[in-house]
Design brief:
By secondary structure, this protein is mainly alpha-helical. It has helices spanning 2-30, 36-60, 63-68, 73-99, 117-133.
Length: 134
């Protein structure tokens, strides 16, 4: 009896899954193709986010603020270099998209919730993790 109930349940699951699988395939075939420009726009969106984040930190916190929070001058200099790199990434992707005939996405308005150096460092860890995993 148990094996009959299991068999019926398994057949029902297969019968239900088959149309769903076909529907998923149909949806994928109807979806617009993702282009190189789409992927570069996504990358540019992330670079805008990181660029703005580091620019705001350097605008809002001085080397002395970082020193008071326990970070040395080298840490602050590294942040300036990272900020410069992020700006370069934005410029590079913007130029590439423009040269390819695509209109680059604009920078958004962000609210990072950073109120001090320690919250900046904590948030940077999260943002960098998102950027790397993308």
């Amino acid at each position: 009896m148990k094996s009959t109930i299991f068999s019926v349940a398994a057949l029902a699951a297969v019968a239900v899954a088959a149309p769903a699988k076909n529907n998923l395939l149909a949806l994928r075939q109807m979806a617009p193709a993702i282009t190189d420009a789409d992927i570069l726009q996504y990358a540019l969106t992330l670079e805008h986010l990181e660029n703005k984040f580091y620019r705001e930190a350097l605008d809002n916190f001085t080397q002395a603020d970082f020193a008071d929070a326990g970070f040395d001058a080298t840490f602050y200099e590294n942040l300036k270099e990272i900020s410069s790199d992020e700006m370069t990434h934005v410029s590079y992707l913007t130029a590439g998209l423009t040269a390819a005939g695509a209109k680059p996405v604009a920078e958004c308005t962000y609210a990072f919730g950073v109120t001090d150096v320690k919250s900046f460092v904590a948030t940077s860890s999260i943002l960098e993790g998102v950027g790397v995993s993308a």
